[in-house]
Amino acid sequence: xxxxxxxxxxxxxxxxxxxxxxxxxxxxxxxxxxxxxxxxxxxxxxxxxxxxxxxxxxxxxxxxxxxxxxxxxxxxxxxxxxxxxxxxxxxxxxxxxxxxxxxxxxxxxxxxxxxxxxxxxxxxxxxxxxxxxxxxxxxxxxxxxxxxxxxxxxxxxxxxxxxxxxxxxxxxxxxxxxxxxxxxxxxxxxxxxxxxxxxxxxxxxxxxxxxxxxxxxxxxxxxxxxxxxxxxxxxxxxxxxxxxxxxxxxxxxxxxxxxxxxxxxxxxxxxxxxxxxxxxxxxxxxxxxxxxxxxxxxxxx
Length: 301
Known about the structure:
Layout: E1 7-8, E2 23-29, E3 36-38, E4 43-47, E5 54-55, E6 66-70, E7 75-79, E8 86-88, E9 91-97, E10 103-106, E11 109-115, H1 119-130, H2 142-158, E12 163-170, H3 173-180, H4 182-197, E13 205-210, E14 213-219, H5 223-239, E15 242-244, E16 247-249, E17 253-259, H6 260-266, H7 277-293, E18 299-300
Parallel strand pairs: 1-9, 4-5, 17-18
Antiparallel strand pairs: 2-3, 2-11, 4-6, 6-7, 7-9, 8-9, 8-10, 10-11, 12-14, 12-17, 13-14, 15-16
Helix pairs in contact: 3-4
């Protein structure tokens, strides 16, 4: 079976039990971020219609898009022959049994399925996670990144350690959305983040800074080594196209790199109580702009 094949889980015998009370869906990406929907009834229909149980007002969602059937010990997600499909953990499905922590993507909205006796604690943990993590890409969000950036800058300045910042942008991302659709654009964002995450160090801080822009803070690395890592990642993204609904989508990225030594040169005084992360960001952002102006798919350091 190909990686884009629709997954069908054959349910040989569905238990005839009462719906599991301790089960819910939590919106981790979408307009109702953090909202919890209890799965207390036997069937919960999701769609764009005002008559369904969970209404999502998105053009990419069918009027009756999917249903969550709750049989007690077994909870099943079924696609209702929707136009754009239902995805569980990034795989298109017609019918699939859900397990705790599974992600269900319907249109551009992503739900997380929670179940078990401690579902309320899980929900509160998930809400806390939403304060630090981008729901679509599952990497850090801008708010968390800026907080950690101040901490890392202070530490590196105090102990005279190297620190580099890479700002990264997906080239012609609007064209991807316009040509292949926003669902394909979301898929590209998730997969770019996944590829990069797999090739950076555990201590590196990688975040979605906004839209199609990412930021990467690299402790203990100067500008030269940071640029070398950036070039490795650039080639990694360029080397293999991304696939969505069996369509190949070529993707490239541009990057701008600066380090803490340069930051010291643009601020009047080094005050550990008044760190300015935006002055540091501007250095890398200006170079990212140069990379895009000079042809894209390149790194400027």
